[in-house]
Each structure stands twice: as structure tokens, then as C-alpha cells.
């Protein structure tokens, strides 16, 4: 058991020493769309070599973080194909700047059918309680019954032919009343009409006396 612990400790020491041997690098760059040369914002960057540490580009597609020479960086974004990049070794300076170009990728998702029922039991209950629609004959009978026609007559506006007929009737009635009673007043309540009537009677009596 002690030997296993010793071997594991040595492996960890070697890995730590190997990691320390690779120098640190300021890794920076900008991410563009390869087809339109427009920046790709908020791209995720994953350092696969350094325990999958993640970073993110800003809204202008710019990123900058510390990595090591030889690290593998994976660029991923929704709607784009993944790109990988390895930071070169033996750089003359402790910084590495790149321009990353990502290509758009269209992914067709499987079709999803959404049902308004949470379970088959609920569907069965709704199906058993469902009321079937009337056929064409029943719908026609309901549309021409008296109550439906009366309701529609109160809400539907009049058409041009109906308006024309009503105007013609109103004009005819107005002309008839104008000939009978020019002023449109009730002669039974008009004292001048009564005076004219009495005068006509008196004139009639005088004409008979002369005869």
C-alpha cells in the first residue's frame, strides 16, 4: 500500500514539474465569422490541457487570458462549428495573439409535437367528454332559425339595396303628406283650419240662399 502511495506521489510530482517547465503565455485574440468577417460575440473557450478551464469572449469577440505553451484551446458557440488551436512552444515573447475564424453550422433539431394533455389518462378523459361538431345540415338549420335571424338583424348593417328601398319609401311618404298637409301639422288642432272650415260652411249656406 505504501508503495502505491509513493508511486502516485512521484507521478504527481513529475506532472507538476512538467507543468512548471512550460512557460506562461498571455493568450489573446479576436473571433470572426469566416463567411462575413463579422465578430462572433460571447464565444466559450475551453483549455483542454489545463483541466478544462473555461473562459469567454466579450461582445466584441475579444478574449485574453493566461495559458501555457502547448495548451489546446477549443472555441465553441451556438450555431458555429467548433474550432481547436494549440498554442505554439518556444515563443519569442510571453504573449500570443491570434485571429480565430469560425464557420457557421446549421443543426436541424428533431421535430417536437406539443400536446395540451399532461398524461394519457387526462387525454382519455378529455376525449370521452368531447362534444362532436354538428354536420353541415345542422349548422345550416341553426343559421336560418328565427332567433339567429333576429339576432343578426339587430347587429348586421343594412346593405345598399335595403337602404335605397327605405329612402324611396320615406320620400314617397313625405311627398304624399306634403300634398295633403303642406305644413305637416295636425288639422284637428289647428284653429285656422277650423276657421277655414266654418267659413266654407257659411259660404255654402249663403250660396244656397241666393238660389
Tell me about this structure.
The chain is of the alpha+beta class and 211 residues long. The chain has helices at residues 2-21, 120-128, 136-143, 146-155, 160-180, 191-210; strands spanning 24-33, 44-47, 53-56, 62-68, 72-76, 83-86, 95-102. The chain has a 4-stranded antiparallel beta sheet with strand order 3-2-5-6, with no helix packed on it. The radius of gyration is 49 Å and the shape is elongated. The termini are far apart. The mean pLDDT is 81.
State the gist of this model:
This protein has 211 residues and is of the alpha+beta class. The chain has helices at 2-21, 120-128, 136-143, 146-155, 160-180, 191-210, and strands spanning 24-33, 44-47, 53-56, 62-68, 72-76, 83-86, 95-102. The N and C termini lie far apart (163 Å).
Give the helices and strands, then pairings.
Blueprint: H1 2-21, E1 24-33, E2 44-47, E3 53-56, E4 62-68, E5 72-76, E6 83-86, E7 95-102, H2 120-128, H3 136-143, H4 146-155, H5 160-180, H6 191-210
Parallel strand pairs: 1-7
Antiparallel strand pairs: 1-4, 2-3, 2-5, 5-6
Amino acid at each position: 500500500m505504501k508503495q502505491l502511495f509513493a508511486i502516485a506521489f512521484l507521478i504527481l510530482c513529475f506532472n507538476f514539474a512538467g507543468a512548471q517547465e512550460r512557460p506562461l503565455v498571455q493568450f489573446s485574440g479576436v473571433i470572426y465569422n469566416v463567411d462575413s468577417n463579422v465578430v462572433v460575440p460571447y464565444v466559450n473557450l475551453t483549455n483542454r490541457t489545463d483541466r478544462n478551464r473555461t473562459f469567454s469572449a466579450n461582445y466584441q469577440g475579444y478574449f485574453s487570458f493566461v495559458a501555457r505553451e502547448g495548451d489546446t484551446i477549443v472555441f465553441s458557440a451556438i450555431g458555429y462549428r467548433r474550432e481547436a488551436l494549440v498554442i505554439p512552444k518556444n515563443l519569442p515573447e510571453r504573449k500570443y495573439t491570434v485571429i480565430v475564424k469560425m464557420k457557421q453550422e446549421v443543426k436541424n433539431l428533431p421535430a417536437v409535437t406539443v400536446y395540451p394533455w399532461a398524461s394519457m389518462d387526462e387525454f382519455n378523459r378529455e376525449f370521452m367528454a368531447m362534444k362532436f361538431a354538428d354536420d353541415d345540415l345542422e349548422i345550416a338549420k341553426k343559421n336560418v332559425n328565427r332567433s339567429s335571424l333576429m339576432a343578426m338583424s339587430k347587429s348586421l348593417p343594412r346593405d345598399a339595396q335595403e337602404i335605397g328601398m327605405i329612402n324611396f319609401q320615406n320620400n314617397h311618404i313625405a311627398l304624399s303628406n306634403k300634398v295633403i298637409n303642406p305644413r305637416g301639422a295636425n288639422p284637428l288642432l289647428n284653429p285656422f283650419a277650423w276657421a277655414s272650415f266654418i267659413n266654407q260652411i257659411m259660404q255654402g249656406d249663403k250660396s244656397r240662399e241666393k238660389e
